[in-house]
Inverse folding.
């Protein structure tokens, strides 16, 4: 995945939670992705449902699950990705249940 991420990638996570915000650059993006593993003690998992793409965009829909203390997550999410020169330059994370997402990551 590292090779897919543009050095200047912008990764946006919606909501009011520990992961929310705009993460500018590859290092910030990798930090927020590592944070998901840290906060869930390695239990965070994704299960790809489907993906569609053209030369400029990728949309991946997946199941997201994990445990965080006494909280559990089991929702569908999407990544909406803009691609340039074969690299991901912008990513918007889209949880299908924002309330459950915020409750889990808060």
């Amino acid at each position: 995945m590292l090779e897919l991420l543009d050095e200047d990638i912008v990764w946006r996570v919606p909501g009011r939670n520990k992961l929310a915000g705009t993460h500018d650059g590859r290092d910030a993006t990798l930090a927020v992705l590592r944070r998901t593993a840290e906060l869930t003690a390695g239990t965070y998992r994704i299960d790809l449902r489907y993906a569609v793409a053209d030369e400029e965009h990728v949309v991946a829909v997946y199941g997201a699950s994990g445990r965080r203390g006494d909280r559990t997550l089991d929702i569908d999410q999407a990544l909406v990705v803009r691609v340039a020169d074969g690299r991901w330059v912008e990513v918007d994370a889209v949880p299908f249940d924002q309330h459950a997402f915020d409750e889990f990551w808060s």
Summary: The chain has one domain: 2-105.
